[in-house]
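User: Hi! I have a protein structure encoded as tokens and I'd like to know what sequence might fold into it. I'm fairly new to this, so please keep things simple.
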């Protein structure tokens, strides 16, 4: 083969390779380092990179379509591993509020989308383990089935204005008069102003000590108490009603263990595990065992592996789940 022919073929091959290369580059631009995942993901970073690299030419904090288009050769948005969006598609997708510019509102939109996607993935991951993310009194908790029962009970009690007593929950009206202590964005706490703890003497000679309400004032009428009746809440978790003429005397006095407990639990946030734990220990010392168990449940809602609370309630851990100790 003569030299001119060899040279011609070599030049032809090089030109063909160049044409193929140009075509491939046009069809498959360089893979950018930023991606958009379901209109979220790193779209925020993609927009921010435009600002960081000076493409906001008039410095008004907004990227017009023209400014975006000028910078699109530097930053391209992936459609797939081998394809990118054209400039119009990319701008339309990033302009979340369709106001014709990319700005902080669009960034916030993608931030929110990413947070929602991450939260959804977390919930799905937890659900596979039989767990559920919940919140109570402004604090988040990841709950197994047992914890969910306890959390539901406490959430219902908060909504009804009840406090734990004798292993269950009762409305505050049975214990005394309260002063509300507001907490911004959270459930209020309550300060006990006057206790209804009393010694009840019956005409029969029987004497009991309990929280006692007599239906003889406006407050009692407002709370729905029937005239001529005396209401008694003892540590057996029952409210008993007696005829007023069967009662010889109601002697109010301060300082009982039950009153001290009620005063403390009303002023302590459900979500404060440390104070709840201390109060549970005090209840055990004072013989208020039913209340101690309720408070240990409150602790475990937020601290699933608290050893002291687990032992007190007779549970052990199996992964993130509770198993009753036989």
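Assistant: Happy to help. Inverse folding works backwards from shape to sequence: for each of the 326 positions I chose a residue that suits the local structure. Here it is:
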């Amino acid at each position: 083969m003569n030299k001119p022919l060899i040279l011609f073929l070599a030049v032809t091959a090089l030109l063909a390779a160049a044409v193929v290369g140009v075509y491939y580059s046009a069809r498959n631009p360089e893979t950018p380092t930023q991606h958009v995942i379901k209109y979220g993901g790193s779209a925020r970073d993609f927009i921010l990179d435009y600002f960081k690299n000076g493409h906001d030419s008039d410095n008004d904090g907004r990227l017009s379509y023209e400014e975006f288009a000028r910078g699109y050769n530097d930053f391209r948005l992936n459609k797939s591993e081998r394809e990118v969006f054209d400039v119009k598609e990319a701008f339309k997708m990033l302009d979340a509020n369709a106001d014709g510019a990319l700005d902080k509102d669009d960034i916030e939109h993608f931030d929110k989308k990413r947070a929602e996607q991450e939260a959804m993935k977390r919930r799905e991951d937890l659900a596979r383990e039989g767990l559920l993310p919940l919140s109570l009194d402004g604090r988040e908790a990841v709950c197994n089935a047992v914890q969910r029962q306890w959390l539901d009970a406490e959430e219902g009690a908060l909504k009804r204005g009840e406090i734990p007593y004798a292993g269950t929950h009762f409305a505050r009206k049975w214990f005394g008069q309260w002063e509300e202590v507001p907490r911004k964005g959270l459930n209020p706490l309550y300060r006990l102003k006057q206790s209804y703890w009393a010694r009840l003497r019956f005409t029969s000679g029987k004497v009991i000590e309990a929280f006692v309400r007599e239906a003889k004032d406006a407050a009692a009428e407002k709370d729905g108490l029937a005239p001529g009746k005396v209401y008694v809440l003892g540590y057996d978790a029952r409210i008993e009603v007696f005829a007023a003429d069967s009662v010889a005397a109601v002697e109010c006095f301060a300082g009982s263990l039950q009153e001290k407990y009620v005063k403390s639990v009303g002023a302590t946030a459900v979500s404060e595990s440390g104070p709840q734990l201390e109060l549970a220990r005090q209840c055990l010392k004072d013989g208020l065992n039913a209340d101690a168990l309720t408070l240990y449940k409150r602790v475990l809602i937020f601290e699933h592996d608290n050893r002291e609370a687990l032992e007190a309630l007779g549970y052990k851990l199996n992964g993130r789940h509770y198993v009753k100790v036989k």
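A useful reference point when you look it over: The mean pLDDT is 86. Feel free to ask if any position seems puzzling.
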